[in-house]
Design a protein that fits this description.
160 residues; alpha+beta; 5-stranded antiparallel sheet; two-stranded antiparallel ribbon; binds cobalt (II) ion
Length: 160
């Protein structure tokens, strides 16, 4: 395993759409292992492959609940329920923290590292992590969900 460099807000790649994972091989497993190690080294709750410069639909999440480390390959949100509003940050923007509204219960369909399909339902922080990380796969950043409050310096970190 190895730590990978995290891409920061303002870099074009974060706005690109990631491609589906088609090969469930050694290369993917190394990527996933490296992503988990990189996320943990920064005390993050989630990391998408694009954040380490790989435009593939792969995500790791660990919100320190009973699920432990979750790997989502080619994930899709299949249902959402309720709303929650809370603080949210991103390893690609270490000093940005904003209130973001998200669904409170989210079910995802995804594949595991061997290509087997599964569904998983999360609430609260896990639901938030599902939404945040899956957004990354489509080039969407959490600040896109923040209503502009008109204060210069807020919510404009992507404009450079
Ligand atoms: Co993020």
């Amino acid at each position: 395993m190895a730590l990978r460099q995290i891409v920061k807000f303002g870099e074009d790649i974060l706005r690109k759409k990631s491609r589906p994972v088609t090969n469930f091989d050694e290369r993917l497993w190394t990527l996933l292992d490296d992503m988990a190690e990189t996320m943990r080294s920064k005390d993050g709750a989630g990391l998408a492959a694009v954040q380490v410069g790989v435009l593939r639909r792969a995500v790791v999440i660990d919100v320190h609940d009973e699920h432990g480390l979750i790997e989502l390959i080619n994930p899709e949100i299949i249902s959402e329920e309720g709303t929650q509003t809370g603080g949210e940050g991103c390893l690609s923007a270490p000093n940005v923290w904003e209130e973001v509204q998200r669904p409170n219960i989210v079910t995802v369909k995804a594949q595991d590292r061997n290509g087997r399909e599964f569904t998983l339902t999360g609430s609260a922080l896990l639901a938030r992590a599902f939404c945040h990380e899956i957004d990354h796969l489509d080039g969407i950043l959490f600040i896109d969900h923040v209503k502009n409050d008109g204060i210069p310096g807020h919510s404009d970190v992507t404009s450079k």
